[in-house]
Write a structure and sequence with these properties.
This protein is of the alpha/beta class and 268 residues long. It is built from 10 helices and 5 strands. The chain has helices at 2-11, 17-26, 33-42, 115-129, 142-145, 147-156, 172-186, 194-210, 222-230, 260-263, and strands at residues 75-84, 90-98, 104-110, 135-138, 159-162. It has a 5-stranded mixed beta sheet with strand order 3-2-1-4-5, sandwiched between helices. Helix 4 packs parallel to helix 6 (147-156). It is elongated and about 90 Å long.
Length: 268
């Protein structure tokens, strides 16, 4: 009987002696509950404490805190944001930002965006831009750590930089972009339908990329900055500390890792 109780405990680790007793009675054993309880305790059997669920983390090819964009399409930053329509139904927004040009490559607005939908969005961006990013930077959300996105990175030869859990400052550009979306659009608009939200989000992105001056780009809109950079025109950038570059300074970002507190000053 002791051997049987030990086997029950191994096979059913979340069972206590009461369930084990019921099973033994079903199997034809003749004993009362108190005897089962005594034997259970003498054998040192007990229900183990529940362990915290293990959170699935992404595997980075480059540490997030050491990756700095050096040219367009070097690093795409991904993040999700939530809102709702007037009827209380969820809106989910997927932001993809080019960290070098600060362009909002897309703001996908749907009721639901899973890992497969995220990959489809990235495929569409690659088709439009003609190249995959060198790296993607994102958090450890379930849509971003799924095998679908890992496979996409592998097949596209794109590196991955997952930030540490609970460390949004390691993804400052898209986090700051999300705060602009919230402040300038979501907090002031009540969307009646999904289609209305998609139209207004698309209009806001167009305005952000082509007309909104960006302080980190010498008060240029991101699309204008990207165009001038590709044409080889002088494009003085604001340094991470907020100071304008001096004459003779390089016009591209230094890829030396900086303190994360400075990297917060990027998108105001």
């Amino acid at each position: 009987m002791r051997a049987r109780l030990r086997k029950v405990s191994r096979d059913r680790p979340r069972w206590g002696y009461r369930r084990a007793h019921a099973l033994l009675l079903e199997e034809g054993w003749a004993l009362n509950r108190k005897r089962t309880q005594r034997l259970w305790r003498e054998e040192g059997l007990r229900v183990p404490q529940r362990r915290r669920k293990r959170r699935r983390l992404g595997e980075s090819t480059v540490p997030a805190d050491r990756l700095a964009a050096g040219c367009p399409d070097h690093v795409w930053a991904l993040d999700f944001q939530f809102d709702q329509t007037a009827d209380g139904r969820i809106l989910k927004l997927l932001h993809v930002v080019d960290e070098f040009t600060r362009e909002a490559l897309t703001i996908e607005c749907r009721r639901r965006i899973d890992a497969d939908a995220t990959v489809a969005v990235l495929d569409g961006l690659v088709a439009v831009r003609g190249r995959a990013p060198g790296h993607i930077r994102c958090d450890n959300g379930p849509e971003l750590t799924a095998n679908a996105l890992r496979d996409w990175c592998r097949f596209s030869q794109a590196g991955s930089a997952y930030i540490d859990p609970g460390s949004p400052w390691q993804n400052p550009y898209v986090e700051s972009f999300g705060s602009r979306v919230r402040d300038e659009l979501l907090s002031g608009e009540l969307f009646e339908t999904l289609i209305e939200a998609q139209v207004m989000v698309a209009d806001w992105r167009e305005d952000y990329n082509h007309r909104r001056p960006h302080s980190s780009l010498g008060m240029r809109p991101p699309a204008k900055f990207a165009r001038e950079w590709r044409e080889g025109l002088p494009v003085p950038l604001r340094s991470p500390s907020g100071l304008a570059p001096r004459d003779g300074d390089p016009t591209t970002y230094d890829e030396t890792p900086t303190d994360h507190r400075l990297s917060q000053q990027v998108d105001r």
